[in-house]
Design goal:
Strand order of the largest sheet: 5-4-3-2-1-9-8-7-6
Bound molecules: alpha-D-galactopyranose
CATH superfamily of the largest domain: Glycosidases
Mean pLDDT: 95
Low-confidence stretches: 1-24
Largest sheet: 9 strands, parallel
CATH class of the largest domain: Alpha Beta
Strand content: 15-25%
Number of domains: 3
């Protein structure tokens, strides 16, 4: 997703009441068949090239070990040049060529870019932004997700494709649309408003229930008829937060309906082939992927480094761990990443030698069984001509193409990894609806940032080589020895009971400040904060004490903290650390509560990184979870299957580092021993017997 795109995208969306569960695809459809190899390839856009280049491309794909390409993603105008007139000449040709070359196809449905004739003929389908701007043609992006004209045409072209290519020997799977949620998410068109009212009527059943859920007695917002209910467009001042939250849920649901409509027409023609769409796991603010993951046959994800951040490899790991969690622990596809720089960040930093290999293997380490790129050959024209590719503008006599070919060989050697799983004993709670609610206006401090807290907690565990799953707060947590809630502002009644029973049954829970504050309607429960979590934490907050910008406070262990402090009253919890300075001086800062057979920790401030690391080290020890020495910058994570472990060791530092285990290194092909040096910037995948794994 480009920054441009995210500017156009209005924030929002989700799917009603998430009942998170791993996606439940039947085994026959859960993975593109045809090979036991890891999948390797990328988006391929042959329509941008004359046919003789296709032949060259296919030879290069074979040279690089590519076995899967995604095609047709933006081809609607070519495939349906006029409303209802189809021309599949180009697709027939390229599919036949790929089939005869042994390269499988992940066939795109082109519905992320309707043709010019569609926009001209159906102007009422154009998306409208929150501030009332109607978007036009000329880039890419679907029409209003609730437009009946858009949906009808999207299903028709998809059905035509599915009918035509069912049974084609190249076709292995379906790639519906492209990155739902970007660039179009919230839409304020008249058609969206009508659909929103229908969604609300289904959710609440009556206007009385809606008025109660939204608290419309506040500021006299009561609705007396359904057609008085509008999308939460810009208003004189802050719009009712419960109204906005529901519009975000509606938006995610409306987009998901579009996906399901296409998927279902595909299934009529190719019932045994997997259907998916490419997620942007932690970087799409408008979709509740817990709901989406249940509807895809295999979870597929696009990931691009935040290139400027020097810890971007940690963020990559976070994104990959979240993707694996969406997949219910099953292998997933890295559908897109980049060989080097993208073209849409403020400064498009190029990857250095070895970095693309480390990035690719980091995704595989965390459960990906496919490594795909955007895109195969760099475009000469259009908005993305400065984006890196597998075949760069410089051609094949280039570092990038040599690394692409080497990566193909490495993935070929590492194919035994396919199907293995990634064990994790720690979970971080991730609730998109809570994030939406927290991000609305008029919160107690602009420094309350859920993403920042999650990254901080995740980073502390990454530095200790502790593998983490992400979990929804309503899902079963019993398999985890430690659960972290770094930022869980909104907690539904179901989640509250779930967290209480997790701890009561012996779990270890660590909760950070500004969690459990409201329910799923953004309503404060009766009594003091944190209403939804005060029983399990054994405390209440007498007063929030947000700190000034750059203000720090000292705790009685000598550490410092910033952003936030609280005046806590303990009702059973024991003090662990106290504030020594600042507005809460003398009061507890960190507490521990015995609850049933388990323990709940509460951290009421934002500790400096070293202090947070020490606290999480204590929690890991209390939960009996082994960890590594913190801060050495070498990523170590294992996949396991049938007594075999694959330990991925990725050296992100400038110095050699000792391998933690011996065995066969699938990167070099050599036999290695524990303690052997792994070169600065190097990668190893050590296959060994499982009992020697960490
Ligand atoms: C997204 C899109 C691709 C391409 C890349 C560029 O992931 O899906 O079509 O635009 O971004 O980084």
């Amino acid at each position: 997703m480009s920054l441009d795109q995210s500017e156009v995208t209005t924030r929002g969306a989700s799917a009603g009441t998430a009942v998170p569960a791993p996606s439940a695809a039947p085994a026959t459809r859960s993975w593109p068949g045809g090979t036991r190899q890891l999948r390797y390839g990328g988006d391929y856009n042959p329509e941008q090239w004359p046919r003789h280049v296709w032949l060259e491309d296919i030879a290069l794909m074979q040279q690089a070990g590519i076995n899967l390409v995604s095609i047709g993603i933006f081809s609607w105008a070519l495939l349906e040049p006029r409303d209802g007139e189809f021309d599949f000449t180009f697709l027939d040709d390229i599919l036949d060529l790929l089939a005869s070359s042994g390269i499988d196809v992940d066939l795109g449905t082109p519905t992320a870019a309707p043709p010019a004739w569609f926009w001209a003929k159906y102007p009422q389908a154009r998306p409208v932004t929150r501030d009332g701007v109607t978007l036009g043609h000329g880039s890419r992006g679907m029409a209003s997700p609730s437009s009946p004209d858009y949906r009808r045409h999207a299903v028709r072209i998809t059905g035509e494709l599915a009918r035509r290519y069912a049974g084609h020997p190249a076709l292995r799977m379906w790639h519906v649309h492209n990155e739902y949620g970007a660039p179009i998410s919230e839409c304020y068109s008249e058609q969206s408003v009508l659909a929103f009212r229908r969604w609300l009527s289904k959710r609440y059943g009556s206007l009385e229930a809606l008025n109660a859920a939204w608290g419309t007695t506040f500021w006299g917002q009561r609705y007396g008829a359904w057609d008085e209910v509008d999308a939460p467009r810009l208003s004189a001042t802050v719009v009712n937060p419960a109204h906005r939250l529901d519009f975000k849920r509606f938006t995610s649901d409306a987009l998901l309906e579009c996906y399901v409509l296409e998927r279902d027409v595909i299934r009529q023609h190719t019932p045994d082939l997997p259907v998916t769409t490419n997620f942007m796991a932690t970087s799409c603010p408008s979709l509740d992927y817990w709901s989406w993951a249940r509807e895809v046959d295999v979870v597929a994800n696009d990931h691009y480094l935040t290139a400027e951040r020097t810890d971007n490899h940690v963020l990559l790991a976070l994104d990959a761990d979240f993707t694996r969690s969406l997949a219910g622990g099953r292998p997933w596809m890295l559908m897109e990443h980049s060989t080097s720089a993208v073209n849409w960040q403020p400064r498009n930093i190029a990857k250095r030698p070895g970095e693309m290999l480390r990035n690719s293997l980091a995704h595989v380490a965390r459960g990906a069984d496919a490594v795909m790129f955007f895109q195969f050959r760099a475009s000469r024209f259009g908005a993305e001509k400065f984006h890196s590719a597998m075949v760069p503008h410089q051609g094949t006599d280039s570092r990038i193409f040599r690394e692409v070919t080497e990566l193909g060989r490495t993935l070929g050697r590492a194919s035994a990894v396919r199907g293995s799983t990634v064990p994790a004993r720690v979970a971080i709670l991730w609730d998109t609806e809570s994030f939406w609610a927290q991000d609305l206006e008029w919160r107690p401090s602009v420094d309350l940032d859920h993403r920042e807290r999650i990254e901080a907690y995740y980073t502390a565990l990454w530095q200790r080589n502790v593998t983490v799953d992400f979990a929804h707060p309503e899902q079963g947590l019993g398999r985890y020895d430690l659960v972290l809630a770094p930022a869980l502002y909104a907690v539904s009644p179901t989640a509250r009971l779930n967290l209480e029973s997790y701890v009561a049954e012996g779990g270890n829970l660590v909760v950070s400040f500004f969690s459990g504050i409201v329910d799923d309607h953004d309503t404060v429960p009766a009594g003091g904060h944190p209403g939804q979590l005060r029983d399990v934490l054994g405390l209440t907050v007498a007063e929030w004490l947000p700190l000034r910008e750059h203000e720090t406070v000292t705790l009685d262990d000598g550490s410092t903290a910033d952003v936030w402090a609280e005046d806590l009253e303990l009702h059973g919890a024991q003090p662990h650390t106290a504030y020594r300075s600042g507005p809460a001086a003398g009061k507890p800062a960190v507490t521990v509560n015995a609850y049933g057979r388990g323990t709940a920790w509460y951290i009421s401030t934002r500790p400096a990184a070293a202090a947070l690391d020490a606290l999480l080290g204590e929690a890991l020890a209390a939960a009996g979870i082994p960890d590594g020495p913190s801060g050495h910058g070498v990523e170590i994570v294992s996949r396991t299957a049938d007594g075999t472990a694959f330990t991925f060791v990725l050296n992100h530092t400038d110095a050699d580092a000792p391998l933690p285990v011996g065995g066969t290194d699938l990167v070099s092909g050599a036999t290695v021993a524990a303690g052997d040096p792994l070169a600065a910037g190097g990668s190893a995948v050590v296959e060994h017997r499982q009992q020697t794994a960490q």
